[in-house]
Records
---
Amino acid sequence: MLTASKQWKQIPIDELQEAPWNYKAEDERMEQALINNMKRNGQIVNLIVRTIGKDRYEVVNGNHRLRALRALGAKTALCFDLGEIDTATAKRIALETNEVSFAPNQEALTVVLKTIIDKYGLKDVAETTPFSVVELRDRLEFFDYLARMSDPNIIFATEHFQPKGVDPPALTLSIEGLTEAEMRLVQKAFDATREPMDGEALLAICRTVGRRDGNEEEEIADGDGPEQEHQDG
């Protein structure tokens, strides 16, 4: 709720200071991605600050955004001022506004990334997001797996693949219609986890196992299916 002490402000950059208790880890790549992001889009997300003196404000949430604004030569920042609150309250608000977030659905995220990459290209997307070019390429390969899994010629059952050494035997996912190399990769994924898993987890672990086993990955790349190329834009 907005009150006289809580309000939106356009505050000069020189009046803002970072919180010495900020607990967020430093990450040069993420910091550069944030700068690139704000250079492209401007300041879309506000800072949350508290008043600590006359024309002096401490950043409660947005310390890295403040650095990015400074790097870009901004003169002011859009802020929500909490007023004169104590440090414990400021830390609680920082925790609540930073950490109450929802984990992405990996399949849905991959579809979103595919759409963005198709328009802007791998390198451009990597410059303004948390993902490297390599990670984005992995996502595109994951997208290809998802497409294959939706193929009506691929059949799912319940008692075919099982982690070795499981007693009693677990009911797990069975996939028919994959290439021999893909089938071996799926079995390796099960053997590595020794647990049943849903399709999303299976695909993610297949990528990990495949990346660890270069020969297996090359066999899959040379499989019978149509080869797809992903452009860098």
---
Amino acid sequence: MMYRGSGKVFNSFFFRPLNDSPIVDNLSIHEDMVVKSRPLICSNLFDEFMLPYYMKLWNLFSEAGTPLFSLDSDGDMNPIMDNIVKCHVNTFLPCEPAAGMDAVQLRKKYGNKLALKGGIDKYVLSQSKADIQTELEYKL
């Protein structure tokens, strides 16, 4: 984690200034907090234990000019997606269809607040060209 003090950016793990610190273009968290069928944490506990941590990180990085906050978590994140967006996560991946994550429905719900990566059903890719075409037409 980094923080600002006396006009310098510090790496809080080592408490040393980073000279001429570049702007980080993407704060990326890889945290599998769900299984295929459901989250391992409910939304109330997410808000209590994870939201403050994510907000602290995002505030530090966004104040330094970081525009993107990405979260990578497999599985069905639907029950806690509102919590994720509340943390200012603006990029989500892999948007796993086999776990019930529907990129089209997420786009309808969150609009331009949330960029999505993935969302293509990899199992369809082993099927016929017509099945692949149907999958891609729905997603695009």
